[in-house]
Amino acid sequence: MTNHRRTRTGKLLSCAAAAAMLMAAPALAADTAILEEVIVTAQKRSQNMQEVPVSVAAVTADQLANFAAGGADIRFLAARVPSLNAESSFGRTFPRFYIRGLGNTDFDLNASQPVSLVFDEVVLENPIMKGFPVFDVEQIEVLRGPQGTLFGRNTPAGIISVSSVKPTFETNGYGKVSYGRWNAIEAEGAVGGALIDNVLAARISLSHQRRDGYVDNDYTGEKDAMEGYEDTAGRVQFLYTPTERFTANLNGHFRSMNGTARVFRANIIKKGSNDLVPGFSPYHAYTDGQNTQDVNSRGANLNAQYEFEGVTLTSITAYEYVDAFSRGDVDGGVAGKGPGFVPFSVESASKINGIDQFTQELRLASSNDGPLKWQTGLYYFDEKADFANLSYGAASSDVLKRTTVANSVQDNDTWAVFGQMSYALTEELTLTGGLRYTEDDKTLVRREVAYGSGNPVAGSVSRAKTSDERVSWDLAADYAFTDDVRGFVRVASGFRAPTIQPRSVNITTANSEKVMSYEAGVKSDLLGKRARVNLTGFYYEVKDQQFTAVGGVSNNNTLLNADKGIGKGFEADIELLPVENLMLTVGTSYNHTEIKDATLYVPACSGGCTVLDPIRTVGTSRQASINGNPFPQAPRWIFNTTARYGIPVGENDEVYAFTDWSYKSTANFFLYESAEFHSQARWIGGLRAGYAYDGGRFDLSAFVRNITDERGLEGGIDFNNLTGFIIEPRTYGVTARMKF
Question: Domains plus CATH for the chain?
């Protein structure tokens, strides 16, 4: 009953806030401030966001500075954009994104996702790469719905595009230092400018984040043993413009992160509900396992453009590398000692020996201002992933003894040819269509090795291969009702390539996931460009939807294809300048998702949890029917709002406050439904208040994140007991910033 009330409250607040903002519009003050034009690259060319026939949202650099205060990782995007969710069972790495409810909960090291992360026009395929720190970033764009024509496979839900600040020939930069709770330190800065006037420029950007642990291990007696980290990243860019026609940007970057892995906590969920048990404290855990995590990555890309007469040739060549190790106590406690019932000790680790990714894109695009705009190109992707799953002593007297190592090597090759054309039939009506042909091939070899032997266990070498070719397409119409009000309709297809899962000797595979999406929307700048209201309604169907049956009694991941899945709903993005010096935003989304496969059963939880689906027993396995269930990690309602108010002091100074709030309704953690394994509906808020001096050149502020100190589950482990991991407690601190 409580969750239903919270969900209903979220709906009412969402609608009421939007209505109140618009009803207040006639009383707007008469000052000259207007909303700035937002430029996006959703169609791989710079365009006004209001003129793009795609549901797209942009998160600005100023908003990012507030959302990421205190060293937050990229998961801060969760619910900050309508229809976008994010979570991770790894902590500061391996984020999993969901757009319009479509995503993938698989935590295996070669897992694919239907949401792609594009960083400086380079696709970062493996989830471990998607956790690269967000710093010195100009903007983040979220494209909702299939983007297969221009961005390729594995984008049927959408993409998240991150654009770093590029070098210019003017000297500029910034520096920032923050200090916060648990001795959190964040030092970040960038400097750039001309090396050779009008020919060569550079920009160097650095970020360092560290924090002490704040979780005591009550079993060993160690204080502040877990949830600490040290994360350093950097980027160097060179801009080369020897002629007016040729431009090249060389980007090199790295990351080195070490700390503790996610803390799993046994029996923290109250049976029969998703409440935390009475007396639960986020500052204490009881574990006999090791808890370590390291990630090291590096990469480089060259983006070169040559301007012919009316045509631009673009080449993007990129290489990315990452290795990582993460070890955690997945039983969440100590066998025979608790907390609660922990039947046996088991630890596991995920190790990436190395992932090498190479991509090459060649694109030819029109650059004139005529009614016809077109682009065509070739794309190549090659990835080699060498990784291992390690198990430790479930039955051994030495619970830290390594028992098996499952080494896997996966090779993935993809190539594609694509094209898109837009034509303005009239001054008001523009049609856009695109087509892409893709071939995708994967091979995987898995060798299970008994620790210390160095040789595969007899019969444990497994192999798998997948191959597919697909055509993705989209068709859109954009109509300008007035100079400030536009409408669009869009039909688009996309697919997620076949997947291989090497969790056990019996390798599982899944066929391609195919998505067909239909959407219509209105984009409007109102009230003399003091209000911006963008609305989109959508419906999509997924054929052969890829799912991962995670956990169950066997603690095994199994790939499967559901016959069909559907999603439908709407999104609203609203910005408003109601009075002088006040900026408001409101976003909301409704996503209804449903699995449609009457024959599909998955392993259900043990440990005394309460399964709500029909159950059948096969041998010793309890299996739940998931027909009619929502997609996992797909909250039905998302709501977010921000407000910034500044009070001028003198001619160039300002006292300001910024607050942001987000709401997510409840969401399942797994494919089956249970009383325990789903998140609670909750609000998360933040606040920053400060003084900006000399036109914002100097800034001193205080911040707080999770201002109400909300506590609840972010995810769970269902094979052993009522084990979960939680959202972070309240953080706070101060920040000093200078720009030049």
Answer: 2-739 (2.40.170.20)
